[in-house]
Design goal:
Length: 210
């Protein structure tokens, strides 16, 4: 083999290695850029407060610990089944979110929906289950919860939800739903019913799930 051929082969090998190194560097920079952007985007949804863990009951009478869903982004709503105004459309919106998040492959895996009843006397497990079934809830990622008055009051207080029982047994309550990150931090509060921007909620959940 001539010296000229050896030089050509060596040169070709050098440039192959050179461009391979350049490609690796560019790819690494792109990956770091995406990671950095995701962290920056997540930081645009500031932590409002660290929430305490709580334990209530699901509609099948089994215990539910909020910390069991850590690692998932959660949307939490507070309702009572006899509510005739904001609660039904809010729960309908949760149903729409359930279907949209399923389509994205996130439901029950990266995100979860939590609906808490604060009407401990009326909303038995059976009553709450029937209510949940009206909205085609999927228990693999949407939890309807209840508990005794004392336990539920601890949860509503921690979330900053005011609940006032009226003389007719109905309730006045704070009309908010809450975004909770994977570590149990409250990150955002939304309205209820027509004030819920579902596209924004999904976008926020996707951001925090990354």
């Amino acid at each position: 083999m001539s010296g000229e051929t050896l030089d050509q082969n060596a040169g070709s090998s050098f440039w192959k290695r050179y461009w391979f190194i350049i490609a690796v560097v560019v790819l690494a920079a792109a990956i770091l850029g995406v990671i950095g952007y995701n962290k920056w985007k997540s930081s645009q949804i500031p932590v409002m407060k660290q929430l305490s863990d709580f334990s209530l009951e699901k509609v099948d009478n089994t215990p539910f610990h909020f910390s069991d869903t850590n690692g998932k982004v959660r949307l939490v709503a507070f309702i009572f089944t006899r509510c005739a105004d904001v609660c039904p459309p809010t729960t309908k919106n949760m149903q729409k979110l359930q279907e949209a998040l399923k389509a994205k492959g996130m439901f029950g895996k990266d995100v979860a929906l939590v609906t808490v009843s604060f009407d401990s006397e009326h909303d038995t497990a059976d009553v709450l289950r029937q209510y949940a079934e009206k909205f085609s809830y999927d228990p693999s990622g949407w939890y309807f919860l209840r508990g005794n008055e004392k336990d539920v009051a601890k949860v509503t207080k921690d979330f900053g939800v005011g609940v006032l029982k009226q003389d007719d047994g109905m309730y006045m309550h704070t009309m908010r739903t809450f975004l909770v990150d994977k570590d149990g931090n409250m990150r955002k509060a939304y309205g209820m019913a027509a004030e819920m921007n579902l596209d924004q909620i999904i976008s926020d959940m996707e951001t925090l799930a990354k």
